[in-house]
Amino acid sequence: MFRGAVFDFDGVIVDSHPVHARAWKRFLDSVGRRVSEEQLQFVLDGRKRDDILRHFMGELEADQIVEYGHRKEQYFRDEAAHVQTADGLRGFLEDLEYEQLALAIASSGSKSRIHFLLDRLDLKKFFRVVITGDEVEQGKPHPAVFLKAAHQLGVDPSELMAFEDAVSGVRAARSAGMMCVGIAQPDRAAILVDAGAKYVVPDFRPLSYSKLQQMFVQ
Question: In CATH, which of 1.10.150.240, 3.40.50.720, 2.120.10.30, 3.40.50.2300 is domain 17-81?
Fold first, then answer.
C-alpha cells in the first residue's frame, strides 16, 4: 500500500541548482578557493553544507562552519528571486493532497534556506514534515534524513515513495527502504537507475497519484 511521499528539495521541488552553484562559487571565490565547473558539481550531489565546506576547505572549526555557512546562504538569497518550482510540481502536490497522502521533505540543505524558499514559494502548506541537513548527523547517501522523515510522518518507509535527483539521494532513499523515482533529464537517467531509482522522469508533469500507484505495485 502506498501511503505517502518524501521529496528532496534542491533540483526536485525547486529548480535551484544553477543558483546554488553560483552561490557556492561566489563564496569560494571570496575565500580564495578557485574551483572549476567540474569540481563544482560536488555541491549538486545532495551533500550537507558542512560536508561541502570540508570538501573544499579541509577541516574547519565549528564557528568557522557557522560563519561560512551564513555567508554562503546570503549569496544564495541575493539570487533567490530566480528560483522557481519544478514544472508540474504544484498540480502534482495538489493531487497527492486530495488523495490524503502524507507528504514530507528530506533535504541535505540548511533549515533556514529551505524554509525561506518554502515560504517565498507558498509551498509549506503541502508538507506535514520538513527534515533538513541540520537535523541529522550523517548526510546522504546515509539514510538518516529519510528515516527521520518517515518516523515523523508515522509511516513505514516501505510505504513511502521518494523523489530524488542525485545519486547520493537515491542511494539514501533506497537504503531507508523506500521506492525511489528519479527527477532528471534523459542524459542523467541511467546513473539514477543504476543507483536504485525505479523510474526517472524529467519533471512532475507526467506524474499523478494513479500513475504512482501503478509504478508502486509493479
Answer: 1.10.150.240
| pLDDT score, position 205 | 95
Q: Please tell me the distance from the alpha carbon of residue 53 to that of residue 168, in angstroms, as a whole number.
A: 17
CATH number corresponding to 4-15+84-217:
3.40.50.1000
Q: What is the pLDDT of residue 218?
A: 56
Predicted confidence (pLDDT) at residue 1 exceeds the cutoff of 70: no
Please choose, from the candidates 16, 13, 8, the residue with its C-alpha nearest in 3D space to the C-alpha of residue 82. 16
pTM for the whole structure: 0.84
- Cα 131 from Cα 104, distance rounded (Å): 8
- Classify residue 202 as exposed, middle or buried by CB count within 10 Å of its CB (0-12, 13-18, 19+): middle
**Cα–Cα distance, 200 to 206 (Å, whole number):** 11
Three cell numbers, residue 54: 570540508
